[in-house]
Each structure stands twice: as structure tokens, then as C-alpha cells.
Amino acid sequence: MVGEWIAESMVATSKITSSSVVDITAQGATFTLSVQPSGRYTATLSRYGQSASESGMLTLDGSDMVFMRQLPSPEDSRAHWEQVGSSVILTGDTQFDFNLDVSSEAATLRTVLVPR
Question: How far is CA 36 from CA 52, 57, 84, 115, in A?
Fold first, then answer.
């Protein structure tokens, strides 16, 4: 995982209504992930003209990638990961506002990363 990655696709699927699916990258969002040999990472999501970044430490636990975010606030999250050719696919839990009512709901996020 060491290196620079960019999301080829990011698809959120509602855990409440499985027919609610949003391709975030098709809506113009970009996601980049930079991983250093030390395990430090920086992730940046840009969409709707705004950008949000986080940084922390990344480790592997079997088939899970563990993101131990330090900034902007401490929080741990996990994503199942698999390598397919030169791509890496991350699948994990997230929150997403599917109907734009300013209320997020539980979702699964599938992100396909390719080397940058």
C-alpha cells in the first residue's frame, strides 16, 4: 500500500434500502490516499468544491485495513481490502446522506484505488 493512490470509483450502498446506491466519483468527487513506508497516511476527499483531509496510521490486520485517524480527531475505522491486479479494493462501513435531507444513514462504501 505504500505510495500514492486515487479512487477510480467510490460507490455507497445504503444498509437500510439496498436499492439506494450512489457513485460518488461519478458525481465529480475525487479521493486520494498517500501511504508512507512508516504506515502514516493522508487521505483527501474533494467534492462540491470543498475538500476534507485526514491523517493517521495505517496497519493491516489479516484481510482488514485499519485506519487509526489522528487528525482532525482520533477515530479508528476498518475496511476489508483485496488486491486485484494493480488495484486495491476497500469495502467498509460509512455514513452517507442518500436523499440530501442533511441526515446520514448507515452505508457500505466500496472504493477502487489505482496507483497515481
Answer: 19, 9, 21, 14
Cα separation, 61 vs 76, whole angstroms: 13
pTM of the model: 0.92
Please name each of the domains of the chain with its CATH number. Answer: 3-115 (2.40.128.20)
Q: What is the pLDDT along the chain (116 residues), one digit of tens a residue?
A: 899 999 999 999 999 988 999 999 999 999 999 999 999 999 999 988 899 999 999 999 999 999 999 999 999 999 999 999 999 999 999 999 998 888 899 999 999 999 99
